[in-house]
Amino acid sequence: MSLTILALAGSLPIVAILLLMGGLRWPAARAMPVGWLIASALGLALWRMAPGWWAAAALYGALQAVDIVLIVFGAILLMNHLQASGAIAAIRAHFGRVVQDARIQLLLIGLGFMTLIEGVAGFGTPGALGAPLLTGLGFSPVAAATFGLLFNAPNPPLGAAGVPVNGGIGSVIDEGVLGGALERGAFLRQVSGWTGVFTGTTLALLGLLGVFMLLYWFGHENERTLAGAWRGARPAAPFALALGALAGVTQFLMGWFVGPELPSAVAGLVALGAGLGLVRRGWLVPRQTWRLPSADEAGTSPQAAPGGDGASMPLWLAWTPYLLVVLILFVTRMPGLGVREALKGVALHWQGMLGQEIAYTLRPLYIPGVLPFVPVAILTAILHRMAPGVALDAWRRTVRQTARIAFTLLVAVSMAQIMIRSATNLNALPGMMQALSLALAQATGPAHPFVTPWLGALGSFMTGSSTSSNILLSVVQHDAAASLGLPRTLIVALQNAGSGLGNMISVLNIAAVCGVLGLRRAEGDLLRRLLLPMVLLATLMGLGGLLLAPLLGGIY
Questions:
Q1: Closest listed residue to residue 168, CA positions, set 502, 492, 466
Q2: Helical residues (DSSP H) of 86-157, grouped into ranges
Q3: How many Cβ atoms are within 10 Å of 389's Cβ, its own excluded?
Q4: What secondary structure, in 3-state letters, does 166-188 show?
Q5: Which of 177, 380, 423, 470 is 20 to 30 A from 56 via CA?
Q6: pLDDT tens profile 65-99
Q7: Which of 379, 381, 377 is nearest to 389 (CA)?
Q8: pLDDT score, position 123
Q9: The pTM is what?
Q10: What is the pLDDT of residues 201-214, one digit of tens each?
Q11: Which of 266, 258, 264 is nearest to 340 (CA)?
């Protein structure tokens, strides 16, 4: 059977999911099972996987997703506690008191607060919390939705406590895919480091781009031209470039030297702390305060942001849970302290699943959802003196929210493992992922590093998730790089970095932000606005990949 036919057949599960979600607007919970059924049918009928091997591969994939589900649960639980306790409202009130210039407010929230929230929680929380924060400061709902999506683009690949790397890439690229060439943990750390190169660069540029877009899209009438927007953005350029560079360098360093769990969280904390310090001292800030046009001129009206009453909560108390999460993650992930090794040593093993040569390992104490998110959420309820009923309601909401995500993740990772392990079959055919990889390598050739972030963005555009994009495509990218002789860690990092860009134009994410802000029929307008910055940033990432790939020579 020809490679082309195998590749076309192997692509059917992924193509079906993308068409159902992007074309027919099916939710992921409906589309993913269809892809799973197609992959299973192909594996059993065309590839002739042994039934026992197919069942073990499907079960292994579902169990691999448990790590992701636990992180999602813990992250959402903490965010629900912070919102219900009034911590988010206290932070919003502080921004309104300290900073009057709307350009600086946007930079502090976009580069600082939203980067931090993505690092700690992910899964839609930056838009759900950051966009209402902007409306509370006087931004129109459309402007808040626009920048809630724009500023989150560089952060998901190294956010959500490492889920897109450890849970997304790590759930499908394991020792079997690596073939002993590199230990899985070392591979993921290198992917994290190279991802930081691209996302850090994006963060460094995004501040100035965001301010320019604020003036061009939502400024006064004389500022809604290229020249007018630049005139209005120029006074804020030093602050924007300094804060963006600081966030970007921090994200890169944390990704390279610590791992994927902390980069966005620490970058957000550093940018927020440094930005507020610069504002208090009057350094790099514009001399003249720029305010948003009046509601009549803008054609919209400000909207109060939801959340508990945080007026009586001290600011240090509102920030304490974030600081605790970052501190605990740092101590438990930093090599050389011994804590990481001790936590990873507590493991549950299942060797020979269903009588097959597949082994599953769960390290519960090393999952951020278990430690630190759940303990910090409980401590938040105590420190913030939440009423028992309020705290219990936060748990109930979290269970409901996680249940919707959990099923999709279980099915997605299970499907991906079936496609990967179809390489072991009675017909001696290359597996579905292998066939796709070889066909992709033939189609793109030397231009593959440029194409890779666009494919990552396509995956998240359709699924609304960097993690899902990585589950579907990272093995394809890894194997395509191997067949082309390209650095595999670099190519998978480009896939991961590109997946963040697709989030800003994903129909699912746009609809979620519009739902939070009560916007109606604004989806098309948001998509048109954000398409240009997405294309610009994906082009820069692709060019960076083309420049780096030949320089890295023989690295894995």
A1: 466
A2: 87-98, 102-107, 114-120, 125-136, 141-150
A3: 8
A4: HHHHCCCCCHHHHCCCCCHHHHH
A5: 470
A6: 898 888 878 888 988 999 899 998 898 888 888 88
A7: 381
A8: 67
A9: 0.84
A10: 999 999 999 999 99
A11: 258
